[in-house]
Amino acid sequence: MNTFTLIFIAALAISISVRMWLGQRHLRFVASHRNTVPAAFTDAITLAQHHKAADYTLAKTRLSFLQIIVEAAVLLAFTLGGGLQWLDTALSGAYASEILRNILLITSVMVIGAIIELPLDLYRKFVIENRFGFNTMTFKRFLIDSFMQATIGALLGLPLLFAVLWLMQASGSLWWLYAWLVWVGFNLTLLAIYPTFIAPLFNRFEPMENGTLKSRIEQLLQKCGFTAQGLFVMDGSKRSSHGNAYFTGFGKTKRIVLFDTLLKHLEADEVEAVLAHELGHFKRRHVIKRMAWIFTASLAFLWILNWLMAQTWFFSGLNVTSHTTGMALVLFFLVLPVFTFLLQPLSSLYSRKHEFEADQYAAVQTRAHSLISALTKLYRDNASTLTPDPLYAMFYNSHPDAQQRIARLQTAAHN
Question: pTM for this one?
């Protein structure tokens, strides 16, 4: 057996084992704290609401076990099971153009993966989310969204894929650098057009009505030195009762978006504090830093792919005999998560650091107590567990533990 085959199997086994172990830890920890509301939240969250958050978390975590198994089975079927090679052989007999064959190979893998994942997605949306009162999406809306996402993905993604595959074939040993430049340009363009051309295809964005809240927000924006194209309310309630707020775009296309569900549950000072937190990400340049990190990592990965394309053991170790650029591309991005999973805590730690910094900014620009109140309501209304397993949270959670977050804000309020 090829040495790389053994390495791949070992890495896959480790990642599956660690993910399952973390999930089991999370289940036990949340269940063991189900009957006690943390002291910092006893005045705002009832035991019944705490029970709901725990049960919601347990349901999602149990589903994640099945998702881990399905993902591993699909990966093995495509690689060691010979699925990718079978697809490539079938396509090579029908299409003479190598770029077209490669595009069809990659899109076939994506479509097959999406179809296999569909039952889990439906169960998550229409069973778990329904059970806990969060889903407001109809099945018709789900079908429309899926069709639109697939259509937009094809319209934007296929030209990008063609460009990358063409560069891989035509631009010599530095193709990875040219492909990276195209990738960066594509993402920056997407960021610029998403707020005004893509997002409105899925949701309605209405300018916030004049009133006390709008005046307070405009004063906050002026105080923070933030200029935006507009302040909009999004009809998030047509899909979910979860609340959120965000700003999107960059340069002159920046806009601030508040979910209608958020405005329904929060007071004016709380909305202001949540928005100040989002502005904190902008003022601390978190978006730019994360983009720089992602672009740097993508450059490194493309360089590694360029090297792997010349290694016969990379293909044979994954039970593939076709050494086309498309096969190399799809193989690399299929197996990459297996080898990078143990690095995930670093990404999560970086994200949590940014959340703490944004909280600190909001506490200075507004009132820490307002943000505490807003976050507590969001934890309650979104049924977010207040007691995640610490090790599970270290791996997966992009936001800090609720108790740590509130404790820091309380300290800031007294300073």
Answer: 0.92
